[in-house]
């Protein structure tokens, strides 16, 4: 592919000057503009910032590649520019309009490679002397590549252009193993890390808010993660999985107007089921709390702790049976099949001695029946009275 170098040396901030000889230049430095490519800022906008905000008398870069991949020349090689702190006497700078290491378009990457090769040829600079900004002076993540990625670019530049184009750099993948929760909408789910050529969009995080995903690889910059049966997602869409604390106690619902939800209120993906209005006065078991302790998971769902009161310790429970009903009783220790039917003619109360689960209570009915497991049935008028500490 043929490239044009658009010449803006006559209008570049601070103009031209013979600050050094060409032979003083040993190193080509890559940069990004640190502004998202989608913003489509241009070199003139950067110059305004350098001049008006930073008070610079000249720009940062000899060459600039805009959001569309067009190449612009700002300065002669002999001009010293403000590209890297304390390191500009021996460096020639290329900046690309991109906000991160994964924001470059393929057109920009191709133009940068062509331009880098041209400068290497013009100034007789080897590929080993092509550096990322942070490699020259480590005060920035610019140009957004790791050492391994820069090494891969240098290896490519060390080959002839023809050989290099037949052998594209394999994108870096880092194996990992952890879980995250999808918390934020508006991020795309793709077949590759965002910005890599050939990616296919599969969906948006909006549809999987609250889901836990199992992450098994990251891209080289660590900004994108690949989830099992999900795809590549921007890490900013994810949070740590909210912690839970296992507990075991009962609460009495005291206050109406609180929501009962599928997750602690406000947590990503929570859904409202009902409110506490219909359950005031009921005792429900609690199995876990949110990490903050503000929300409890009950047999009804997640409730704000302010809606409930912890049930005091029960010292005794009494079973009240109404007159004139029949009940099924079993031997105290089972089997709980084919029990005996007994009739209770007068209302009676007896201490509950234990529980056998599945609605079976151990009581001593005295007389010929004695100690049995009785099937407790509220619909027939049986009630339990608790005495608290
Ligand atoms: Zn830089």
UniProtKB/TrEMBL annotation:
The keyword Signal applies. Residues 15-144 form the N-acetylmuramoyl-L-alanine amidase domain. SMART domains: Ami_2. SUPFAM superfamilies: N-acetylmuramoyl-L-alanine amidase-like (SSF55846). It comes from the Bacteria. InterPro entries: Amidase/PGRP_sf, Amidase_domain, GW_dom, GW_dom_sf. GO terms for biological process: peptidoglycan catabolic process. Keywords: Repeat, Signal. The keyword Repeat applies. One of its GO terms (molecular function) is N-acetylmuramoyl-L-alanine amidase activity. In the N-terminal section; belongs to the N-acetylmuramoyl-L-alanine amidase 2 family. This is SH3 domain-containing protein. It comes from Trichococcus patagoniensis.
């Amino acid at each position: 592919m043929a490239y044009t170098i658009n010449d803006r040396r006559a209008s570049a901030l601070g103009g031209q000057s013979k600050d050094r000889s060409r032979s003083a230049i040993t190193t080509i430095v890559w940069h990004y503009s640190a502004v998202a490519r989608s913003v489509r800022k241009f070199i003139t906008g950067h110059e305004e910032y350098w001049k008006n905000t930073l008070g610079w008398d000249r720009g940062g870069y000899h060459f600039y590649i805009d959001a569309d991949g067009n190449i612009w020349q700002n300065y002669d090689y002999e001009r010293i520019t403000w590209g890297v702190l304390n390191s500009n006497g021996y460096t020639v700078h290329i900046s690309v309009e991109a906000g991160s290491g994964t924001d470059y378009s393929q057109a920009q990457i191709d133009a940068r490679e062509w331009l880098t090769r041209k400068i290497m040829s013009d100034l007789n600079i080897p590929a080993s002397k092509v550096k990322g900004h942070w490699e020259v002076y480590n005060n920035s993540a610019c140009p957004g590549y790791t050492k391994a990625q820069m090494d891969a670019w240098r290896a490519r530049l060390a080959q002839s252009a023809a050989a290099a184009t037949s052998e594209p750099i394999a994108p870096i993948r880092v194996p990992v193993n952890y879980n995250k929760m999808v918390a934020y909408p508006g991020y795309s789910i793709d077949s590759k890390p965002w910005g890599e050529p050939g990616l296919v969009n599969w969906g948006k995080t909006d549809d999987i808010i609250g889901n836990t995903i199992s992450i098994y690889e990251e891209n080289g910059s660590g900004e994108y993660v690949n989830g099992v049966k999900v795809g590549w997602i921007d890490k900013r869409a994810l949070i740590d999985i909210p912690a839970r604390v296992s507990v075991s106690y009962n609460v009495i619902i005291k206050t109406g107007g609180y929501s009962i939800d599928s997750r602690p209120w406000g947590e990503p993906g929570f859904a409202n089921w009902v409110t506490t209005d219909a359950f005031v006065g009921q005792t429900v078991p609690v199995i876990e709390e949110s990490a903050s302790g503000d929300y409890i998971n009950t047999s009804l769902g997640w409730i704000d702790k302010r809606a409930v009161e912890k049930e005091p310790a029960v010292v005794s429970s009494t079973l009240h049976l109404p007159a004139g009903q029949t009940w099924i009783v079993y031997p105290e220790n089972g089997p709980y099949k084919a029990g005996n039917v007994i009739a209770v003619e007068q209302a009676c109360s007896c201490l509950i001695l234990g529980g056998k689960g599945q609605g079976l209570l151990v009581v001593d009915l005295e007389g010929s029946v004695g100690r049995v497991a009785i099937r407790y049935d509220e619909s027939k008028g049986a009630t339990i009275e608790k005495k608290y500490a």
